[in-house]
Amino acid sequence: MQAAANHPAPRRSATSAEQTRAAILAATTKVIAQHSLSGTTVERVALAAGVAPATVILHFKRKEALLVAVLEELAGEFEQARQQALVGAAEDPVAALNRLIDVTFDPKVGDPAKIAVWYAFWGEAGSRAVYLERAGSIDNVYFADLEKICADLARRGGYVNVQPRAAAMGLVGSIEYLWQEIMVAGAAFDRDLARRTVRAYLASLFPQHFTAKP
Questions:
Q1: Among candidate residues 21, 37, 61, the one where a domain is terminated
Q2: Could you report the per-residue pLDDT of 8-28, keeping only the tens digit for each?
Q3: At which of 33, 61, 89 does a domain end?
Q4: CB of 111 within 8 A of CB of 102?
């Protein structure tokens, strides 16, 4: 009976460990956004997470592993959101792109601190290889999906002058620019305007399928 009574303890311990790990990752995202990758330290992360530095080391062993874990978590989060948005794109590419635009500028996905992490890895030469290794394949699949959707829309609408690859590059470029604006403007960033801006770009290419709203 005593053994049975003690049985739930490991589950509680595992849950607590997962919560601590999640708190450390969230804190690391904020620290990177404030101090860059090179300025991120175990001590700063521990302070932001409300844990001891030894707890950070216990979960991630070293700073480099912690940084990679943050990148992988954000990449996984974005990939999941992207995949969900593009479900059914073959049947209704317009609806799929509209969902993608909405989720891209959702405050949870397009959070200023999270975006800062993306650009920190991409912008710091020493970390770019890590980014390409851990998230490069996701970027490649993302672009391939957009190019395929643009090709489908061009075929459906008879847009003979639309080059799908160029259209996809312009779509990615407009989103990337607006994401950079999120880092600058923070909470003041107008997400509705951003969505309208991207849709206006699509309307310039696919006027039968998108409308540029003021």
A1: 61
A2: 555 556 678 889 999 999 999
A3: 61
A4: no
